[in-house]
């Protein structure tokens, strides 16, 4: 039971961490639409950084480059949004649309290959180590975000920033800087999720994010703006994916089940909203 739980958390780690990134951006009222592109860029820079920084330790410098890239790009986008009145949704879509082409060009320049960039055997981590680290990072990210938003002054301010920025302005909080800092956190978390995608496989492959950034945005919404709800939604989604993947074995038309997790996810979102609305209605009475 414990082993199965750790395996599920490890498999869900990239999606769960990306959902936490989406949740932070949702708190401040500036949804990080570019999570999909950030995950793809970081999946590449994680592997590429390890290969290029092999003589400096490989793993840590590679991940550090990805985190700095994700945080820096998110901070830049937020700066343009807050101070230059740019549209954050258009900027996020631009990141998503250009990420694949940018990675392809960079991969060709650095490694002479624009398809698969794999780690050599001597740099590969043991599968059990990758599973343990992935599960630990998922738990630490989720638990850390929950504690940060509940017990720290900055976390509480981030949590209410999107709902009542006027109140924070009235007590002297520099809301623009707070938005930029929070979006930097979101970008770093998205980058970490992308790194885990490629590290779990031991290689970067084109379109590795495969829509997980978009799913993360939905999970943050489905979780009801809470870390616990978002975590449960991510774990449930991955569990459904695994169950349906197992059910496809031996089927004549397995493709019919591919979209079922998304349909079930949509159903759960609608059901959750209806239950909350009914509960509030009867509580008022």
UniProtKB/TrEMBL annotation:
It comes from the Bacteria. Its main location: membrane. GO terms for molecular function: transmembrane transporter activity. Pfam families: BPD_transp_2. One of its GO terms (cellular component) is plasma membrane. It is found in: Cell membrane. The keyword Transmembrane applies. It is a multi-pass membrane protein. The chain crosses the membrane at residues 59-82, 88-112, 133-153, 214-240, 255-276. The keyword tRNA processing does not apply. InterPro entries: ABC_transp_permease. Keywords: Cell membrane, Membrane, Transmembrane, Transmembrane helix. This is ABC transporter permease.
């Amino acid at each position: 039971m414990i082993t199965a739980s750790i395996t599920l958390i490890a498999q869900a780690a990239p999606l769960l961490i990306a959902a936490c990134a989406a949740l932070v951006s949702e708190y401040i009222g500036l949804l990080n639409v570019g999570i999909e592109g950030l995950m793809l860029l970081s999946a590449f820079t994680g592997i590429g950084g390890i290969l290029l920084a092999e003589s400096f330790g490989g793993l840590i410098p590679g991940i550090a480059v990805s985190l700095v890239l994700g945080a820096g790009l998110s901070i830049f986008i937020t700066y343009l949004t807050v101070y230059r009145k740019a549209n954050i949704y258009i900027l996020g879509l631009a990141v998503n649309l250009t990420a694949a082409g940018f990675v392809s060009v960079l991969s060709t320049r650095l490694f002479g290959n624009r398809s698969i960039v794999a780690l050599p055997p001597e740099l590969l981590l043991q599968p059990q180590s990758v599973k343990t680290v992935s599960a630990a990072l998922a738990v630490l990210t989720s638990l850390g975000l929950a504690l940060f938003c509940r017990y720290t002054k900055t976390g509480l301010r981030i949590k209410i920033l999107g709902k009542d920025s006027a109140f924070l302005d009235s007590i002297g909080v520099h809301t623009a800087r707070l938005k930029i800092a929070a979006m930097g956190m979101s970008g770093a978390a998205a980058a970490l999720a992308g790194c885990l995608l490629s590290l779990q496989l031991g290689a970067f492959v084109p379109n590795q994010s495969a829509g997980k950034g978009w799913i993360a945005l939905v999970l943050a919404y489905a979780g009801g703006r809470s870390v616990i709800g978002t975590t449960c939604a991510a774990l449930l989604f991955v569990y459904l994916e695994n169950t349906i993947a197992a059910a496809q074995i031996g089927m004549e038309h397995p493709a019919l089940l591919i979209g079922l997790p998304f349909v079930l996810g949509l159903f759960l979102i609608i059901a959750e909203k209806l239950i909350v609305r009914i509960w509030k209605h009867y509580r008022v009475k």
